[in-house]
Structure prediction request, 711 residues.
Amino acid sequence: MKRFRSLRLLAGIWALSVSVLASGCAGISHSGHNRGESPLPFQGKTITLVTANHPWADAIRPLLPEFEAATGVNVIIQGFFEDQLTQKLTLQLTTGAETPDVFMYRPLQEGKLFYKNGWLEPLDDYVRQDAEYDRSDFSSEAIRSATVDGKLAGIPVIMEQGILYYRKDLLQKAGIPVPDTIDKLVSAARLLHDPDNGVYGFVARGQRSPLVTQVSSFLYSEGGDFTSGQQATINTPEAMRAFTIYGSLLRDYGPPGVINMSWPQASAFFAEGKAAFYTDANSIFKSASDPARSTIAEHIGFASFPAGGNGSRTYNITSWGLAMNPKAVDKAAAWAFIRWATSKEIVLQTQRKGNPGARYSVWNMSEGTAGFPKEMVEVIKQYGIGGVDHDRPTVINVAEARETVGEIVQRVMTGDPDLQQAADRANAALQAILDKEAE
Amino acid sequence: MNKQKKTANLIFGVLTIAVLLLFAFPFFWMLLASFKTQGQIMSTEQLFVFKPTMDNYSDVFKEYDFLKYILNSFVVALGSTLFALLLGLPAAYAIARHKLHKLGLVILIARIIPGITFLIPWFILFSKLELIDSYTSLILSHMLVGLPFIIWIMISFFEALPTEIEESGLIDGCTRHQVFMRIILPISGPGIITSSLLSFIFSWNNFMFSIILAGDKTKPLPVAVFNFMSYSEINWGGLMAAACIITLPVLIIALLAQRYVVSGLAAGAVKG
Prediction:
């Protein structure tokens, strides 16, 4: 009897465990659009879309039912913060998982690594077979950013360029025009630098790795680049001039502690009205121009990146793209989604909500530019065709390569007397990365 | 003499406050920031004096739907703790009474190996079983840490209990199971509460397992908190409000159970 009771107890515990565990595994629900009506091309198919926490994802989410109704595909969408997204994608793709079918990725940060690992389906054939999709409508810089080894590894979704943010009121008070050359920027920053009254001349990213994408505009405008073919070129005279200008601007006219600032700190500093000039990507314009977050929203001006010895050359890149998992079960359905999400109609809708897309035709529509400040649209249009298709060294191990460049700039900021030697060392380190990857 | 003692007390008091400030300030800052607008958070002039707003908290629930994530976290934390207790208590008892120390060591190894080692096999396994984004996979994975925790705290607890109590139970006609259920468990309250509390807090805060194994349906709080950070924007106010909300339940549970925790920890510690 007693033995029986304890057995019953055990059985009870077991049954409880099983039922609770089982209740947790509710299967994926398939929403049955248009059941019983005319057959849709992908009726009953399900694709998983993984996005970053990005305004583009917020814009596409409410449009998904449209796509589902038209194709019969059921889209499961999941969003993650960008670093988590990389972790999650890396792990899932390493295991050869069939999901996600479609995902957002950063072509210049992860593209080369992902492609070489066979995690990105080349999309050239899909695009080529499809005249209506109009590949030539895409910005050629954007396409180049998303191309690895001559293959289109993803479709550009978000574009990004470097611009100069400035304070109209301060410039007006001092009676100086918007600087159109880097030399004029330096002298204007010197003139407006007045820390005793709470205004610094210049602010930008000073943190070692984050600063690399922003110093790139100085580098290109002075005629340099990170690499040339398989050769590291971050110790050339052009590169040294660019790094010295950027580093000294921050050292001489930047806020204290700028060496620890990335874009969240730098843009907040500017939005608080504490700096006269700020160079960064145009994608973060809202933190400066949104009155809820910025005390100087009405005084913000946007200008093209000032010209250096080699003219005004900034990056013009794809910061986010859509890619397909080569292991996806139904690639046709996955492509149908990518095609839809990057079609003219949908790009217009997402761009209207402030997501700068890669299609020329949308930029040429007045509706297409409604989501941006007028002055910024002028700058973007002025960049038009041109600019550099990368904003960081194009290698597989981007993180390590960024450190080498960042180190030189930080040494300028801390006033290292033996700069050339440090640059030579950093250049050798970057060369070692390139050589290793060329093997 | 007396004067010396007074100065010693004074120094002790000052040091206590200094340490307290050091540890409590981040929490205090978090609390203040959760009532500020984005501009106020970034401004150094409005560190302590500012016009408070409740917008962040309403955002957390309305715009970001945090109730769902709170529920997810509760289900997973409670589930993993309960199942870990279910398996861990009898296991710890058996190890303690039958001196199965080698087995205990093997279980401890699961705790020593970095959790990330398990993630890839788990992901493959759970995706084959179609258990990604299910409570089952999250509960099972969180048990990996909770279970050894409970077993190890309870082993020393059970070992400290005098065997005479059990023997008298056996003499009076109890079976081993009944001794465990009716005598041992009721007097093990402090140990059980301490170990389940720690197991619960671990699960509540776990990020690494959840990020890989959870999806949109089962996303728990530590993962959801990152919804406030996006590519070109960080919503600091919302982030701080969410952080306060996440801290609150653990704080409440810990305060309520504090009495037991202290005696539980001591019980494990002074065992001869």
Chain B is about 80% helix and 0% strand.
